[in-house]
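Quick question about two entries, pasted in order.
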Amino acid sequence: MNEESEYKGLVFNGFAMLAVVLIMIPALIVLTIKLLLENDMVDLGAAIVTALILIDVIMLVGFFSQQPNQARVMIFFGKYRGSFRNTGFYWVNPFMNRKKLSLRLRNMDIEPIKVNDKIGNPVLIGMVLVWKIKDTYKTVFDVDCPTPVAGAQTNTSKNALDAFVRIQSDAALREVTGQFAYDETDSNVSGETTLRSGGAEINELLENKINERLAMAGIEVVEARLNYLAYAPEIAAVMLRRQQAAAIISAREKIVEGAVSMVKMALEQLKDENVVELDEERKAAMVSNLLVVLCADEPAQPVLNTGSLYQ
């Protein structure tokens, strides 16, 4: 058996069994007094009372309570007997080992790590992961946990499981990051998905990759999404200047496009309304002046020409 199954062993109502244990206590007291009064049965009575007290104490070990979204993996002398998921107060065989697991959602913040993107740029990327235990058998028996110290079994197992999830999530994050460029560049295919623009697509791929890795441990990923993305410090300044240059070029293209349109409109309007007749050289001079005025970063200084264009 290598998968989870339901526990089908005997499980009794905890309150009913508690009543049985409580009834045994006064019965033991009465039996003890009776046997002590009979001198010829003192030795036999002492042995019977000792055995009954031992049984009563052992029975107390079998009580447990279970809340919603919790489960217990039942192990009887090393053999897996099933997983118990019912909620309430119960009593089970005291010799049954019951490993308690939480099936509730867990949130993990993966600290930003340095990874090379598709084109080799080092980037810092982090994510938030929401996960839960789905298969209790795989979680308990397929993930190796350090031998816990006395009284710290739950915390030790939890830390080992968290470490396993964190390492596998880190590996999946590196794999996904290496498939995409941080941002659009001249070497990228037009419209190609990037880490900055991918959004839902990147998160969905990341969730699938982590699910593939954690399925071996019986863990299901509910959500995985990037929460931090930036260039590594050693290239951040260079990339910032590159982005600024790209923004300036884009802005200049829009300015030139608008200026040419305005010059064309001005020449056509002058011609249609017969404001002035311009030969080709005067048109060229006018176009040059208008483009200087419209494309300049600072206000142009007008120059008054008192002569002719050819002087």
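Here is the second entry:
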Amino acid sequence: MKTSISIGAYGRRDIKDVMDFVVEAERLGVDHAWSAEAWGTDAVTTLAYLAARTDRIKLGTGIMQISARVPAMTAMTALSLNKISDGRFLLGLGVSGPQVVEGLQGVPYKGPLTRLKENVDIIRMACRGEKVIYNGQYHVLPRPGGEGKAIKLEHAPAEIPIFLATLGPKSLEYTGQAADGWLGTSFSPDHAEAHLSFIREGAEAAGRTLDDIELHAACNVAIGENVEEMIAERRGGVAFQMGGMGSATTNFYNDAFKRAGYADEAVEIQQLWVAGRRDEARRIVPDEMITQFGAIGTPEMVRDRFRIYKRAGVDSLSLRFDNALGTSAKTALLEQVMDILKDVA
């Protein structure tokens, strides 16, 4: 399997520490680095800097929020990053959620999947070097009734792989139909069909197979002998996903856990979190909602988990480590992970 790391937000951390870790990851043979974009750092600036500090590792946005910029600007940014990275750029897109889109960006969250499709259409059109002419439900270019004209971007055409971060069934189907790759979160290889069945359905409808889509799955990793302690440390993160990563009515992460067989648990945790009873929400997170969505335990346990991910059809493990770890500790852990992966068949 290939590997990737996530470049987390550095608004409250030492940016040098974060960037040095990516350089070390390249040295250790990691294949991809994905930059985060939530409500702190943007997904672009980081990669522009890293393009100058790295030579081989592929650099992807994980993800650029489609509501934060117009499609033509996304295309221009993608082409620029692809140029300065010597063709190592991957464009990861996602719709984010209503709390961020409407609360921070001031854009209606209406029709997120249609907006995503229109973004992909326009971006690909622009990257092919065509004049941008589009008549969609949310995007009409040139804008009618004004002085605008169809414009071709001043870039050499480039085929930039588009990865989609999707969680809902219809969005997963679209990923199978149209994307070059998938950035999967809330994914358990023990319940892989909760995601992959929809991607497969979309792919087959478009005359493709799962082999045509590069599947990247987030995998929380911790290695040690104190397994119960490592599990306990991660209850808060799962509770936050269930209750805080979205509104009380729209939480794609919560829905993904429900499809994986944790409907009752996901609802109860969310209700406690929204009610402000967050310590209770953390306490009731079952071990399986942690252990089945990552690789946590002794080296032998982690090796077995990686094999399960591979058998599930995952092409690349998106390795997630504890953000509290410094560069030295994360590098040592990553080196251990890369050694373990050599034995995964």
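Reply: The chain has one domain: 2-220+298-341. The domain at 2-220+298-341 is CATH 3.20.20.30 (TIM Barrel). Hope that helps.
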